[in-house]
Amino acid sequence: MLASRRFWAFAAVAAWALLALAGPVFAPYAYNHQDRAAILIAPCRDCAAAAPGTAGGAHWLGTDQFGRDELSRLLVACRVSLLLSLAMAWAALLVALPAALLSVGSAAADGALRWLGELTRSLPWLFMLIAVRAALPLDSPRWVILAVLVALFAAGSWAVPAWVLRGAARDLLRRDFITAARAMGGGRLYLLRRHVLPNLAPLAATYFALLFAAAATVEVSLSLVGLGVPPPLPSWGNMLLPLKDIALASRAWWLYSPLLVLVPVVTCLNLYAFSQARRRTG
Asked: What's the pLDDT at 258?
């Protein structure tokens, strides 16, 4: 059962990762192409017949309020949102894992890192992220905005996985094979590199999946308040932003199309993390 769950989780994430990499190549239109005669058209195969005056062609997922093809924008948004979420999750894990190893490797660093971790967990990081992002100038380069999002997510998310990895590392250091390696002359750095770090890999992978899912939802949350990926570059979050208008949300049902990707990806990542946790505890 758990193996089947992991398989489908990996298959779904791999499929969307492939779509993120290759999807924009097959996009029928440019993501910023506007057809003012094709505003808010429902999905159609021959849109010229459905909406006279349009440029024709197919809009398989309809168009948005600016006449942009939803399918083309969704294919590009998959790349943007998945790569941004990947960068955010990696950044947080690359802070958490060294912090955990340093904490078990040095008694002096352990106290400082535990204090810093408690401080980090007590701060309202989502509000701080919103405040810092809102303070950036409106004309900031796109790469600066994305780098700030990655850095702030890592700064606010490293503490919990670091705490759990620290506990797992301390437990490993009490195992018999570590005692044997220490008796054979293995130093602290050697033990951490050769024995502790490889055994922490499954737990680190579990937290990476959780961080990945959290990063995707954070990107959507920020975009819904206008502080996520700057338009016109599409992301899952800013594609859902027009749904704040209740008239669009109730009438243009095809604008919910990013949820066709976001929900399966987040669900599969959480199922993978759950199956890994069940395997370790069961």
From this structure: 93
